[in-house]
Structure formats: structure tokens, C-alpha cells
Amino acid sequence: MWIPILIEKYNIRLMQEKGFKLTAEEIYSVNRAGMKDGIVIFGGGCTGEVISGEGL
């Protein structure tokens, strides 16, 4: 788990070393659209996931 506003400071380097291709700004930006805008909750209890062509 990570806090989106702190992604660049604490997590993005390790995530990219493991193959993650987005930048920290593409995940979370105060002024631009990013993954933060795709967070969903269905029916008050289920959540959505980001899945690539290779799976989770």
C-alpha cells in the first residue's frame, strides 16, 4: 500500500525497478488527470484493479 501524494518520494523507484512503466505524475498529480482519477468502488464494498495484458 502507498499514499498517492508520497509516491514519488517513497515508492516509484522500486516500482519502476520491478517493471512499472508509469511516472509518479501519471499516478498522482494535483493538477492533471492520472490513475488517481480511476479509483472506483462498486456497490459500497468492492474495489477496482488496474490490470495489464499480462495480468495483475
Oligomer classification: single chain
How many domain regions?
1
In N-to-C order, the SSE pattern is HHHEE
| Portion in strands | 5-15%
Number of helices: 3
- Cα distance spanning the termini: 15 Å
Can you give the helix content as a percent range? Answer: 25-40%
Show unreliable segments. none
Radius of gyration: 12 Å
Q: The biggest beta sheet, please?
A: 2 strands, antiparallel
Mean pLDDT: 82
Q: Can you count the beta strands?
A: 2
Shape: globular
Coarse structural class: alpha+beta
Strand order of the largest sheet: 1-2
Write the layout of secondary structure elements.
Elements: H1 7-10, H2 12-17, H3 24-27, E1 41-42, E2 46-47
Antiparallel strand pairs: 1-2
Characterise the protein shown here.
The protein is an alpha+beta fold and 56 residues long. The chain has one domain (4-47). 25% of the residues lie in helices and 7% in strands. The chain is built from 3 helices and 2 strands. A two-stranded antiparallel ribbon has the order 1-2. A hairpin with a 3-residue loop joins strand 1 and strand 2. It is globular, with a radius of gyration of 12 Å. The mean pLDDT is 82.
Give short descriptive properties of this protein.
56 residues; globular; two-stranded antiparallel ribbon; 25% helix
Short account of what is shown:
With 56 residues, the chain is of the alpha+beta class. The protein has a two-stranded antiparallel sheet with strand order 1-2. Helices cover 25% and strands 7% of the residues.
